[in-house]
Specification:
80 residues; mainly alpha; Arc Repressor Mutant, subunit A; two-stranded antiparallel ribbon
Length: 80
C-alpha cells in the first residue's frame, strides 16, 4: 500500500510520521480515532483531518506492529 498522506521530515515533530506534513503525528491520529468513536465529533474538533488521513494513519500504525504467536497453557489450571 502506498501511504501518500503519511510524511516523515526530520525537521518536523522529531521525524515522527505525520499526516500531510501537518503537526499531527500518526500516533496522535490513532489516539484521536480511539478517543472520538463518533467521526462527526472528531471532524468538528479537527476539521483539517480528512477520512483518508485517518484511514491511512490506522493502516500505517497497524503495518508497524509485529504479529506474534503466543503459546497459551492448555488449561486454566496450569496458568500461574
Amino acid at each position: 500500500m502506498i501511504f501518500d498522506r503519511i510524511t516523515v521530515d526530520p525537521a518536523r515533530m522529531n521525524g515522527q510520521p505525520c499526516v500531510r506534513n501537518m503537526r499531527l503525528t500518526v500516533r496522535r491520529v490513532v489516539e484521536l480515532a480511539a478517543f472520538y468513536p463518533d467521526r462527526e465529533e472528531l471532524r468538528r474538533e479537527y476539521p483539517e483531518l480528512e477520512d483518508e488521513d485517518i484511514r491511512q494513519a490506522l493502516l500505517f500504525a497497524a503495518g508497524h506492529l509485529d504479529d506474534r504467536v503466543i503459546d497459551l497453557p492448555l488449561s486454566h489450571e496450569t496458568a500461574a
